[in-house]
Design brief:
mainly alpha; CDP-OH_P_trans; membrane; 74% helix; CDP-alcohol phosphatidyltransferase family protein; Four Helix Bundle (Hemerythrin (Met), subunit A); globular
Length: 257
């Protein structure tokens, strides 16, 4: 052994790597955020419980997704989306607190939701610039958007009525319907209109729960968003149904003609 050579047992251990470790660091950011919230605006037991469950589910699902995707660690765009997911978790904690009678801290909720929504325009460009776009990254981004809308629709339900839950639940209802009618789970073509409708849902709900509008106007804004969402899902369902019919025609036609 050379005089400057360090035996293997004395060398510092290499930092742990892999999907589980990488995503755990991100999931730990949510308890840190909730601690800051508790020290400033206050956070009750319901908020802590909701945030803890959210952080655990986020860690497990994202780590499994990375492992199935064959990624050793998170990509740059995934880290941006994870930061958004942490903010959404903080918003969920505030909504859980409000549901159990604590002050809703409306402006904190609005600010966190608005920042999470604004950051939605970052992960795509980061993925393209770094050449790390992936199917998992797109799915992760979509799920964070969907959960933000669900959280906001739950809060809106206490202010405007339970019908607003249809806004947040529509995407999950569509996914559930695809289990009964598999053709609804087919791949849809990229659509700028679909993305715009998703943004409109989040913006409309943020405005509706902010308290800046009279109650009647807030109801009208949320109702308009729901009508637009129904149009978007109806259009996608119609496209998928027509695609199924075209496949059936090809299957019945000899030689695929």
């Amino acid at each position: 052994m050379g005089i400057c050579e360090i035996p293997a047992y004395a060398r510092p251990a290499a930092p742990p790597t892999g999907p589980w470790c990488g995503t755990a660091l991100g999931a730990l950011a949510l308890p840190v955020l909730m601690s800051l919230m508790a020290a400033t605006v206050g956070l009750g037991a319901a908020g802590w419980a909701a945030g803890a469950v959210y952080a655990l589910v986020l860690w497990v699902l994202l780590a499994r997704g990375l492992r199935r995707d064959g990624a050793a660690t998170m990509r740059p765009a995934d880290r941006v989306t994870l930061a958004r997911a942490v903010l959404v978790g903080g918003a969920a904690a505030l909504v859980a607190d409000a549901a159990f009678g604590r002050p809703g801290h409306t402006w904190t909720l609005v600010a966190m939701s608005a920042v999470a929504l604004a950051m939605d325009g970052l992960d795509g460009p980061v993925a393209r610039r770094t050449g790390t776009a992936s199917r998992l990254g797109a799915r992760f981004d979509m799920e964070v958007d969907a959960f933000l809308i669900l959280v906001l629709s739950v809060h809106a339900a206490f202010l405007l009525g339970p019908w607003t839950l249809a806004i947040g639940g529509a995407r999950y209802a569509f996914a559930g319907a695809a289990r009964v009618a598999p053709w609804l789970g087919g791949d849809l073509p990229p659509s700028t209109a679909r993305k715009a409708v998703a943004v409109v849902q989040a913006v409309a709900l943020i405005v509706a729960v902010s308290g800046v509008l009279p109650h009647g106007f807030a109801v009208a804004v949320a109702a308009g968003a729901l009508a637009l969402l129904a149009w978007s899902f109806g259009r996608d369902a119609l496209w998928l149904w027509r695609a199924r019919e075209r496949r059936r025609v090809r299957e019945r036609t000899p030689n695929g003609g």
